[in-house]
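User: I'm curious whether this sequence folds into something compact or stays loose and floppy. Could you predict its structure so I can see for myself?
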Amino acid sequence: MINKSIDGELKKYLANAFVHSPGIIDRLPLPAEEFVAPWRSYLDESLKTGVFAALKNHLPQLNFPIEKGISSTERYRAAINAEMRPCDIVSDSSLPLEAPDELELMIHETPAGPIPVLITRNRNDFVTLFRALAFKNEPADIPASTGACAISGYNNCERYIAYKNMRALEDPFGLAAPEEPAVQKSHYQDRFLLLSDGPYSGISSVEAGFEEAQWRIYSLKIRLGHESAHYFTKRCLGSMRNNAHDELIADYAGICEALGAYDSSLFLKFCGIKGPRKINPAGRINNYKGTPPLSDENFAALCELLRAAALNVEVFDKKCRKIFCGGDFSTAAILCMASLAIDEMAAPDGAVKLEKALEAIYLTR
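Assistant: Here's the prediction. I'll summarize afterward.
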C-alpha cells in the first residue's frame, strides 16, 4: 500500500504498473518470439561476411548517413516503408562507422526468451547506430550517460513484405477478419538490444572502485543484464516504463549479472544519489522524473525512497540468495521487486516484505 502521507503527484508516479501472473516462474524460460529466427539467420550470415555487411542487407537504416531531415526524404521513406528490400537500396553514403569490423552480434538467452544483441566497443559508433535505429537517422542528442538501448517495435522490412505476401496468398479477396493489432505486429516487428562497453552510467572506473579494463567488462555485463530485465518485465509483467521502479529492477539485474550479487552503493552511484537531498544534477535519476516531471520536492522525496529501497533490496539479496534453491535467484528477486511499489520496498520492513513476496512465489509452485 502507498503511504497516505505521500503527495498525490508522487503517489501517482509510484503506482505499480507491473501485472503479475501466478506461477510465471515455472513457465520460464519463455519460447522465442517470431523475430528471433530471422536474426539467427543474420548471425549465420555475419559469420561469413561480417556483422555490418550482413545487417546492411536487412536493416535499411544502415544504408543511410546521419543527416538532419533525412527521414523525410523520398528515398529514405521508401526504404523504411518496405517499398524495396534493404539489399536493393542504393545510397550515396551508407552509415559511417569508425570501427565496423568490431561490431558483435549475438543471440542472448534470457528467462523471457532469446533476444538479439548488437554490441559496439566504439562510443561514436554506438551514438551513430543509436541515431540510425531509434531516431530514423536524424542527429538526435544522445546523453553521455547512455550506453545502451532496447529497440522495441522495430518494423522489419523483410518480415513485413513476407507478411503482406502471406496474407495475400491466404486471403486474396480480403474476406477474412483482420488479425488483432498485437498479433499482426508480431509478424513483422522486432526487438533487439544495442550495447556499448563504455563506463556504465558515465561512472569512471575510479568512482566505481575497479580497474579500468575490469570496469569496461563489468559495464557491458551490467548493460546486458539491465536491458534483458527490461525485456523480461515487458514480456512477462506487461510493462516497461521510463520510471525509477523499472530502473531499480533493471540495475539490480545488471549488477547481479556482472558481480553475482547486488551492491546498492553502485546503484546509487549510477543514479547520482549521494545522500539525503544530495542529488547529482547530472545523475541518471534525473532522466526519470516522469511526464509531466515531478516537482523538486517530490523528486527529492522519490530519491530518498529509492535510496531506502535499494538498501533494503541489498539486505534481501544477501540473506535470501544464499539459501534460495528454486532456480535462478535473480529472476525470482525481480518478480519480488516488481510485486512491490518503491515506497513499499523503502519502508522499514521493506526487506521483510521482499522475503514474503519470495515465499509467495514458492506457494504458487
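Summary: The longest strand covers residues 148-155. The mean pLDDT is 91.
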